[in-house]
Each structure stands twice: as C-alpha cells, then as structure tokens.
Amino acid sequence: MSGLKIQPTTRPSLLVRLKNARDHEAWTDFHSVYEPVIYAMCRRRGFQDADAREIVQEVLISVSRSIALFQIDQDGTFRGWLGRITRNATIDRLRKSASRRETIDAVGVANHLDLVAVDEAASAEFDTDRRRQLFRWAAAEVRQRTGETNWIAFWRSSIDGHPIADVAKELCIEEGAVYVARCRIIKRIRELVDDRSNE
C-alpha cells in the first residue's frame, strides 16, 4: 500500500516541550488542540464571541507565563490545571463585568458565578471538549501524511459507516486495501491521541 505515508514518530511530551518558549511546533500543537476547547467553554458560560476570544487570549498568556512552574506532583494533570485557569478567567471576567455595570442584576451574576464555579461539571465539560478537539487535531495530522484514496477509504468506512464493499467499489480498490487503510489510520490516530491524553 504505497499511498500510505504515515511515519511513526516519537515526540517528547507536549508539556515538557511547552516549557521551552522557543519550541514553536509545540506551541502550535497546543493552540490547535486547546484554543477551541477554551473558546467552547467560554461560549457555554454565556460569553459573546468577542469576550470569549479575549478570555482565550488571557488564558493562553497565563499559560505561557506560568508553564515553566507547572509541576504534576503539585498541580495535578495539565488538562486539569488548564481547566482551572480557564474557569478562573471566566469568573474574573464576570466579576469585572459586574463591577463595571451599575444596573446589573446582582442575583443573576451570583447565579452565573455559581454555575461557573461548579468544579466537577466544568472539568467534565472541558475534558469532553478536549477529547473531541484532540480527535480532530490527530485526524488532521494523520490526513496530511496519508494518500487521499486511503483517507477517503478510512473516513467513508469508519466515520460515515459505509460498507467496505461499497467503499472499495467507489474508489476502485480491493476491499483488503480499505481494511488496511482503516487499520493503519486508526492506529496512527490512536497513537497521537494517546500521546496527548496523558497531559
């Protein structure tokens, strides 16, 4: 199967690499996985697009300033730490916004702050969004290294759920080639996701 160009790579942990501010590839990976997750969390909290984008920038700046001090023993998992930074940034934004508006409904703000401060629910949401974005990121990474026919064979049979025989016929390839493309691409996506899941 010469069209499959996936090269197995062993990369150091993203967390370790982020501590080097000059590792642009690590920071690009971080942004592509976590920026949409942080944004989604802010939007679910009721922030408008512009406010959500500002909070995202605040969180990213906070991470870049404090990543060198992050320690798993003291701070827990990286995703938990990032979730706390995001949650705190949303709470800070709500408090600032409440203090700027004289006509704001204090009860409404208090209720909103209570919702944002619910630790377990916020953590679960953040983790779900992170896993979804991680799949999207890994799939995009793998697709760049995969021939288009193989990618279509994988996507149509695994994601869209079309029968192998139909996909093979559509692409004018053997059914065995569809199975091989699926297996290799799924394996590589899992490797990338697993590599990032321990952060």
Automatic annotation (TrEMBL):
- The record places domain RNA polymerase sigma-70 region at 34-98
Q: Which domain of life is it from?
A: Bacteria
Biological process (GO), any one: DNA-templated transcription initiation
UniProt KW keywords: DNA-binding, Sigma factor, Transcription, Transcription regulation
Transcription regulation among keywords? yes
> One MF term from GO for this chain?
sigma factor activity
Q: Does the keyword Transport apply?
A: no
Classification via InterPro entries: RNA_pol_sigma-70-like, RNA_pol_sigma-70_dom, RNA_pol_sigma70_r2, RNA_pol_sigma_r2
Pfam families on file: Sigma70_r2
NCBIfam families in UniProt: sigma70-ECF
Report the protein name in the record. ECF RNA polymerase sigma factor SigW
